[in-house]
């Protein structure tokens, strides 16, 4: 039986396929959204990796149990392109770094 290992989407190689195991939350999400702050880049509900980001990943089909294939990634923390079901989607580096995938070890 092939050995399985867990990686994030950013650690996978192009062409590699795996099954999503979990989506990690950002531990600092609640500190950044403190009351009384101006709502600029960094404080909005879509920024960070809280509930809205997890819902966005689910809407793209990236949820535990789904098979994903990494198509490509850009240099310098750019977006990661994936194939999920029959669709091609791109997610930012920060979100991709929080999606844990189980892949079979290469022989």
- Top CATH class: Mainly Beta
**SS summary, helix count:** 3
Structural class: alpha+beta
Q: In the CATH scheme, what's the topology name?
A: SH3 type barrels
The CATH superfamily appears as: Ferrous iron transport protein A (FeoA)
Shape: globular
Uncertain spans, ≥5 residues at pLDDT below 50? Answer: 35-47
Q: How many strand elements? A: 6
State the helical fraction: 10-25%
Main beta sheet, described? 6 strands, antiparallel
> Reading side by side through the largest sheet, how are the strands ordered?
1-6-2-3-4-5
Short summary of the structure?
The chain has 3 helices and 6 strands; from the N terminus they run ββααβββαβ.
Keywords, separated by commas or semicolons:
107 residues; SH3 type barrels; six-stranded antiparallel beta sheet; alpha+beta; 3 helices
Explain what this protein looks like in three dimensions.
The protein has 107 residues and is of the alpha+beta class. It has one domain (4-104): Roll (SH3 type barrels). Helix content is 16%, strand content 33%. It has helices spanning 29-32, 51-59, 93-96; strands at residues 4-8, 17-23, 67-73, 80-84, 87-91, 99-104. It has a six-stranded antiparallel β-sheet. β4 and β5 form a beta hairpin. It starts with a strand and ends with a strand. The model is unreliable at 35-47 (pLDDT under 50).
Layout: helices, strands, pairs:
Elements: E1 4-8, E2 17-23, H1 29-32, H2 51-59, E3 67-73, E4 80-84, E5 87-91, H3 93-96, E6 99-104
Antiparallel strand pairs: 1-6, 2-3, 2-6, 3-4, 4-5
């Amino acid at each position: 039986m092939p050995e399985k290992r867990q990686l994030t989407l950013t650690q996978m190689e192009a062409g590699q396929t795996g099954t999503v195991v979990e989506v990690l939350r950002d531990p600092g999400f609640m500190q950044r959204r403190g009351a009384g702050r101006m709502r600029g880049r960094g404080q909005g509900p879509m920024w960070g990796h809280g509930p809205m980001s997890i819902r966005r990943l689910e809407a793209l089909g990236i949820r535990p149990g789904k098979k994903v294939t990494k198509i490509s990634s850009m240099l310098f923390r750019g977006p990661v392109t994936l194939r999920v079901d029959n669709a091609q989607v791109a997610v930012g580096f920060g979100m991709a770094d929080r999606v844990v995938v189980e892949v079979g070890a290469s022989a």
